[in-house]
Amino acid sequence: MNKDQFFKKLNLSLKSLSSEERKDILQDFQEHFEIGRVEGKTEEEISDSLGSPNHIAKELMAAHYLEKVEDTSTAGNILRAMWAVIGLGFFNLVIVLGPFIALVSVIFAGWVSGVAFIISPLLVLIDLVLYPGTFQFFDLFFSIALTGLGLLIAIGMLFATRAVSNGFIRYLNFNAKLVKGGLKHE
Predict the structure, then answer these.
(1) Which of 21, 80, 177, 179 could pair covalently with 88 via S-S, beta carbons 3.0-4.6 A apart?
(2) Domain spans of the chain, in order of start
(3) Which parts pass through the membrane (predicted)?
(4) Which residues have C-beta within 8 Å of that of residue 60, sequence separation ≥ 6?
(5) pLDDT per residue over 21-69, tens digit each?
(6) How far apart, in whole angstroms, are the C-alpha atoms of residue 91 and residue 113?
(7) What's phi and psi for 91, nearest 5 deg?
(8) Which is nearest to 81 in space by CA: 12, 178, 172, 18?
(9) Nearest one of 114, 115, 83, 108 to 164, comparing CA atoms
(10) Strand stretches in 9-68, DSSP E
(11) Residues contacting residue 124 through CB under 8 Å, at least 6 positions apart
(12) How far apart are CA 98 and CA 92, in angstroms?
């Protein structure tokens, strides 16, 4: 593949990045071609040594989204980073998606439990309105105790959600580095 074909494919693969970021990346690869030309290599040899433009774009996108999620850790950024890392290889589909689904399920179940406990007094009041003859003080006091427990669970889930998010981001960074070329011991 010649230089023009390489740049067209790379530019097309990086379409989700801003034009300024794409321009910087393409300038970097322009320098690779200039250095290779000075060394006496042909455009085909240089593009072969750089690798597939699609694979390069996947690595750059993963790095971009991982940097973005480290700056602002929102659910959308985490999902984009996860999909970018999964895109680095089919093996990552199992290695990244499996733990992600398990962690999200546990976090979701914790939040549902906490919210359900918190709203339990409302359910007692609804029961009182619908069936006035069945009211018992035990139900009311038990639901108030559940509300306290629900508040504690919600506070715990807040910290757990933050910890799991940060841990998963570190795992995505580790996985991306591993896929890109192995880990280097420093």
Answers:
(1) 179
(2) 1-51, 73-181
(3) 81-102, 108-130, 137-160
(4) 14, 17, 25
(5) 888 888 888 888 888 888 888 888 888 888 888 878 877 777 777 777 7
(6) 34
(7) -60, -35
(8) 172
(9) 108
(10) none
(11) 139, 140, 143
(12) 9
